[in-house]
Design goal:
globular
Length: about 300
Amino acid sequence: PQPFDARHRPPVPAWQNRAMTMPPHATAPSPLGSLAEQGVALIRRRARALLAVSVIFGLPGTLLSVASVLPLAATLQRLVPDGTAETLPPLDERAVREIGLGLLIVVAGSIGSGILGSLTALAVTRIVADDRQGAPVSARAAARGAIGRALPAIGLSVVTTIAIGGTWLAGGMLAYLLATAGGAPTSGGPLVFAALAILVALVAATVVAGIRWSMAGPAIALTADGPLAALRRSWRLTAGHGLRILVVLAGTAVVTGVLGSLASEIGGLVITDLIATPLGLADAAEKIVAATREHA
């Protein structure tokens, strides 16, 4: 075999050349009061690139999520036209098969939309990092970088889901066993109190994990870390900043929830009243809008 020659190493794509951009440990944070101002300024500067990656990844993910619930919704509406479980007829083999297929489509759509959502987050993270470093910002480079880091991002989702889901499964089973060991849970007693304490501890552990692992996604986007290395890096970066991160995450959730609901209402009015009704598609449009609101 020929000896390795570093001069003949294949060129590294530009987005990978800028990959190692996260510090290994926590740095001085920005003041909370300036975060919103910085975010608005960033959106103004990079609106085109942010919109482009949202259209490339985010919009298809939303449409896929909405479309995946329509077959199941149509089946349930046919079986229960008045929307009450009391009128549910006996399910024959065809109905069971249709419901099962509808559930499979919902699961597949959720997985697909989740992957596209992860790609959106990766691309947006790349844009934000390039902007802060004064590097050239390109929606194409951000999208390519997101696709290149898709597998570690999926692995991160699998690892965190197993960790949190497994913890809740084990803790929930233990709480149930304790609550029912002394008879009916309504009778109270130390075992029931212990079960409630376990549930409170599970909620607290989930919140702490969400805070301390909140930088794992950016670590995947901006470094060559794998899922476990990204979680360890996130744990180091968030040390001593838990309350600040909780405030930022909670504020972001409230703002995005309000804006998402407002956009859903406006979009529903536009689609149903101005587009679908003149075309005679009002019923179909109302179903799509209702599914979109449930997704939001």
